[in-house]
Amino acid sequence: MGKAGKALKQVLEIYSISQNKLAVTMGTGRPNVHRWVNEMTDPVADAVLEIRDALKKINPTAAEEFIKLYLGDANEDNEQT
User: Fold this and answer.
1) How would residue 65 be classed by pLDDT, with cut points 50, 70 and 90?
2) pLDDT tens for each residue of 5-57
3) CA 51 to CA 67: how far, in whole Å?
4) What is the pLDDT of residue 52?
5) Residue 76 class from Cβ within 10 Å (0-12 exposed, 13-18 middle, 19+ buried)?
6) DSSP of the chain, one letter per residue?
């Protein structure tokens, strides 16, 4: 599966955010978050933005880290081209 689930799992672990807390903040079911974290399904683009917004409410630093991990380092991409 994609990078979103890996990034989300890492951020939730680092910042001690439960899947349930994220789900409640997002207004979605915990099974959705569970599927993303365990890479059973990838969140759609809109859900990635909702994840970011929910993480901002819980911990802004976690939201920044999620986006950084999800998008990767733009400088690395430019060096490879």
Assistant:
1) very high
2) 999 999 999 999 999 999 999 999 999 999 999 999 999 999 999 999 999 99
3) 10
4) 97
5) exposed
6) --HHHHHHHHHHHHTT--HHHHHHHHTS-HHHHHHHHTTSSPPPHHHHHHHHHHHHHH-HHHHHHHHHHHH--HHHHHHH-
Torsion angle, alpha carbons of 49, 53, 55, 36, to 10:
-30
Task: Tell me yes or no: is domain 3-80 CATH 2.40.160.
Answer: no
pTM: 0.85
Residues in the chain: 81
| CA 27/CA 62 separation, integer angstroms | 18
Distance CA 20, CA 44 (A): 19
